[in-house]
Design brief:
The chain is an alpha+beta fold and about 750 residues long. It is built from 21 helices and 21 strands. The strands form five sheets. Strands 3-4-2-14-20-17-19-18 form an eight-stranded antiparallel beta sheet. Strands 5, 6, 7, 8, 11 and 12 form a six-stranded antiparallel beta sheet that branches. It starts with a helix and ends in a 28-residue tail after the last helix. It is a multi-pass membrane protein.
């Protein structure tokens, strides 16, 4: 009796100490949506000479890294994602035009001899920097022949900047310039054309002092022109970085201002504190001293999960913070399961004492806790596998939160309660009474399953309303699933939506979707370039005063189609995996009933978003998969109790077991639902616009999921039971005592 609690307490102390050490020593890594900056996602494509595979993408990654370092970006992050994609994070870079132009430009540099002036109708003619037409010969030197490039200036030569070049092969440069020097002074053939991406950026004539055939010695040159410092630096970066081995297409771009990131962190912190306080007050009011001890374990849960994320090097994103806040409510779920089972055990045998009832509560609740957490981990894994951008952070946070909640409830809460229970009275402990909800249900004993078809008809009506919304209004897919660009501007004074729409239309985008609020305007369009964004910003400034770009998101059409396909795959795989898992754990009728109720939950939420025209994006996908996990979690608990009661009351109809299971698990269902709702209501109040829709989806999903566990899954299991001829399960055999009692135990 001594050995197991002792080592359990030692393990709990070790986990807490290690977590505190990591928390104090580690520094969280914030995503760009929290610290501000630009994220670019490039996709390599094959060229006539190079196949876009992992090796070619890695070589392109090296070139991009050199360019990012040369730009002077602090702590840039560049990683390959999959075989053909490169993710570039540039903290502090808020001009996506500069970032995309310099980082991702192909930069095919070449030095050409000029064969003479070209006629206007010549198809091979190219325009020089002044607009004249030139006819160029084959490239004499490519970008690979340039050893170094740097922006330069000299006050003695006057204002202005130029780019200094150093060549790897001096002979090639001397030969090219020596041949050009043999031409007359005003002849176009005396010029050298410097071509970047098939565009002549400079074609200077050779100085008259250069002799024919001698050329320019030393292997150096200067690209002159009306360059600003930034233009000269960017050109030097492109040349020095070298040519990309494969062309790159920009498929995704996100830009977030630093003030928006700071506001998101502040809002998430307030939501976390409010959710924790509300959950703590509720759990202490319901379970008294046991609830207070679980609050202490809940604080440890926060430290453990945060330390785990820091130790993993995980990136904290805005959806990830939302998952952290949501997990506060979900972490109390296991404690509620244990405490409710302990209450039942104590009511059945008060003479055994509180500690024995608590031990049996932990043992009997473990099956439902394990099942429910596995289903949530399935949803988190699908998010990490199929989601994109910051939503992956939500999947990581959710998975870590689930595992940390297991440690918190099954280890820390158990150590704390076992140390106290038995030393206080049943009333103070919070486990000695049945609870107000259970007492009311026991006194009334309602026959909820007397008319199961009625509940199925009500659920069918809700589904019909939801399907009508999907058919009549359709889903408002966000830019993440449709492709295009979404820009949010902050305005110094409010502007009506029609006035903002007129300004955007005058800027050249009459079909753009424009929404206006008290402090900003959002513009979404399928074909909106970076220069177009600047034009729209100028148009809005004429109507709304000072305008500041708050955030920007671009998704290429191919990536949008891929993300939309992945979202459907994620939901389909989630339902299939839940069905398979439930079929293994229970009989197929229970699994099918749970999945039917699950589809009702998802359809109701999707229908509500259709009627309200709320955006369907990656954050909604995170909410939908969380609803799937939470809903199945709830139904696992109900069917686990159905199986237990049906086995104990062999001979009774299945409907009686279902009715009894619903009544017995109702206190747990209500308490865990309220625990999660407190955190979500805090997110709705403090989380800002970006997380409010996420919280709305989860609130509706949890309420619907709680009701569907009783009034859809239960009746569906009864109806499907007619097709399952197998008898009721055998009652569980009692565990054999670990050690036989010896002697009478009498004290002589």
């Amino acid at each position: 009796m001594f050995r197991a609690p002792f080592w359990r307490a030692v393990t709990a102390c070790a986990v807490i100490v290690i977590s505190l050490a990591v928390t104090l020593a580690g520094t969280p890594r914030l995503g760009l949506d929290l610290r501000g900056g630009t994220q670019l996602v490039f996709e390599s494509r094959s060229s006539p000479t190079v196949q876009a595979d992992a090796a070619a993408t890695d070589r392109a990654l090296d070139v991009l890294r050199q360019r990012a370092d040369a730009l002077g970006v602090v702590d840039p992050t560049l990683v390959r994602s999959g075989e053909r994609r490169i993710i570039v994070e540039l903290p502090g870079v808020l001009d996506p035009r500069q970032a995309a132009e310099v980082i991702g430009r192909t930069a095919q540099l070449a030095f050409h001899p000029v064969l003479g002036a070209a006629e206007p109708g010549d198809a091979s003619a190219v325009r020089d920097e002044n607009g004249g037409l030139l006819k160029l010969g084959p490239a004499a030197i490519t970008g690979d022949g340039v050893r170094d490039a740097a922006e330069q200036s000299d006050p003695q030569r006057g204002p202005g900047w130029w780019v200094g070049l150093e060549f790897r092969e001096e002979a090639a440069w001397r030969e090219l310039t020596g041949e050009a020097a043999c031409q007359p002074r005003d002849d176009p053939r005396r010029r050298i054309a410097i071509v970047l991406d098939r565009e002549v950026i400079s074609s200077p004539p050779l100085d008259a002092s250069i002799a024919c055939g001698a050329g320019i010695p030393g292997g150096s040159a200067q690209i002159t022109g009306s360059f600003t410092h930034e233009e000269a630096r960017d050109l030097a970066v492109l040349i020095k970085g070298g040519a990309l081995p494969v062309p790159l297409d920009l498929v995704e771009q996100r830009t977030v201002g630093p003030t928006l990131g700071a506001a998101a962190i502040d809002a998430s912190a307030r939501a976390a504190i409010a959710g924790l306080v509300l959950t703590a007050v509720f759990i202490v009011a319901v379970y008294r001293l046991a609830g207070l001890l679980s609050v202490a374990a809940l604080l440890c849960y926060g430290v453990i999960s945060y330390a785990a994320l820091v130790a993993m090097g995980a990136t904290f994103t805005l959806p990830g913070l939302a998952g952290f806040v949501l997990a506060i409510g979900m972490a109390i779920d296991a404690n509620v399961l244990v405490f409710e089972r302990a209450r039942e055990e104590y009511q059945q045998a008060p003479g055994r004492g509180l500690r024995k009832a608590l031990d049996r509560g932990f043992q009997n609740a473990w099956s439902a806790i394990a099942d429910s957490n596995v289903t949530t981990l399935i949803a988190a894994g699908l998010l990490f596998w199929l989601a994109s951008g910051p939503v992956k952070g939500f999947g990581v946070t959710l998975a870590v939160g689930v595992l940390a909640s297991l440690v918190s409830a099954m280890l820390i809460t158990r150590v704390l309660t076992q140390a106290v229970m038995g030393r206080v009275g049943p009333r103070l402990s919070g486990l000695g009474t049945a609870g107000s909800v259970r007492t009311w249900l026991t006194g009334r004993n309602p026959r909820l399953m007397r008319r199961p078809k009625l509940w199925l008809a009500v659920a069918g009506g809700l589904v019909a309303v939801a399907v009508a919304g999907l058919a009549l209004r359709g889903l408002n897919f966000g830019v993440e699933f449709t492709g295009g660009r979404l820009v949010e501007f902050a305005t110094s004074r409010p502007i009506p939506a029609d006035v903002a729409g007129e300004a955007v239309a005058r800027a050249g985008f009459p079909t753009a979707v424009v929404q206006a609020g008290d402090d900003g305007v959002s513009v979404r369009a399928a074909r909106l370039g970076l220069d177009d964004v600047a034009r729209i910003e100028q148009a809005l400034e004429a109507r709304a005063g000072e305008v500041t770009k708050r955030s920007e998101e671009f998704i290429g059409p191919s990536l949008g189609e891929e993300l939309r396909r992945n979202a459907l795959v994620a939901l389909g795989v989630a339902v299939a995996l839940q069905l398979g898992y439930l079929a293994v754990r229970f009989r197929w009728t229970f699994g099918a009933a749970a999945v039917l109720a699950l589809l009702v939950d998802v359809l109701v939420v999707a229908g509500l978003f259709a009627w309200l025209s709320k955006p369907i994006d990656g954050v909604f996908l995170a909410a939908a998969l969380t609803i799937v996990g939470y809903s199945v979690n709830d139904k696992v608990v109900v069917f686990d109790r159905v199986r237990e009661l049906w086995a104990a009351r062999r001979g009774e109809p299945l409907a009686e077991a279902v009715n009894g299971a619903i009544l017995q698990t109702m206190p747990r269902t209500v308490n865990t639902g309220l625990g999660a709702l407190f955190s979500l209501l805090a997110l709705m109040a403090f989380g800002g616009d970006s997380l409010r829709d996420f919280a709305i989806a989860l609130v509706v999903g949890i309420v619907t999921g709680t009701l569907s566990s009783a009034f859809v899954a239960g009746p569906a299991a009864i109806w499907l039971g007619r097709f399952d001829r197998r008898p009721a399960p055998e009652p569980a055999k009692p565990r054999r005592a670990a050690r036989e009692a010896r002697g009478s135990g009498a004290v002589v």
